């Protein structure tokens, strides 16, 4: 896998995830409220977070940028999971102390610009829990279209959960 480029916005620097980011990412992964809509429950130990981060930092099926302010500690991440040619799924998280500051929208917008520009993708998808109002509102604001509703698609720490499938086409995207 080619090295991920550093991506910048007005307030943020998005850099490739490193294994050493586990300690900073543990703020998110150990937070019960922040992990409500994640596919697994909160991490109980730093070692659990280290193992999880190690996969995203080293497995070539994940392209993961950490969200930072001025290259400081990882506040969260934006991850791409490449699929078919020209298509990838996007996912993200953010430390709860930084919610409602527009950071995720800013970071995801920059990654979308990169995907449709430098990476040459033509389609992005996202998969959310129907009850995750914040994430669903963000995707809609970014121009994603609700394309499907899958009943009892995931078994998570909350039990069987439905899933909304979102899609965004390159021709629909308005670059930031």
Short account of what is shown:
This protein has 176 residues and is of the alpha+beta class. 25% of the residues lie in helices and 32% in strands.
Salient structural properties:
GNAT_dom, alpha+beta, eight-stranded mixed β-sheet, Acyl_CoA_acyltransferase, Aminopeptidase, 32% strand, globular, 176 residues, RimJ/RimL family protein N-acetyltransferase
- Give the overall shape, derived from the CA principal axes: globular
* Average pLDDT reading: 95
Structural class: alpha+beta
Question: Percent of residues in beta strands?
Answer: 25-35%
User: How helical, in percent, are the residues?
Assistant: 25-40%
CATH topology title: Aminopeptidase
Instruction: State Rg.
Output: 15 Å
Number of helices: 4
Distance between the termini: 26 Å
Query: Low-confidence runs (pLDDT<50, min 5 residues)?
Result: none
Task: Give the SSE order as H and E letters.
Answer: EEHHEEEHEHEE
Q: How many structural domains in the coordinates?
A: 1
Name the CATH architecture: 3-Layer(aba) Sandwich
Explain what the structure shows:
It is a single chain. By secondary structure, the chain is α+β, with helices and mostly antiparallel strands. The chain has an 8-stranded mixed β-sheet with strand order 1-2-3-4-5-6-8-7, covered by helices on one side. The two termini are 26 Å apart. α1 packs across α2. The protein has a single domain, classed as Gcn5-related N-acetyltransferase (GNAT) (Aminopeptidase, 3-Layer(aba) Sandwich), CATH 3.40.630. It contains 4 helices and 8 strands, in the order ββααβββαβαββ. It comes from Parasphingopyxis lamellibrachiae. Pfam families: Acetyltransf_3 (PF13302). Keywords: Transferase.
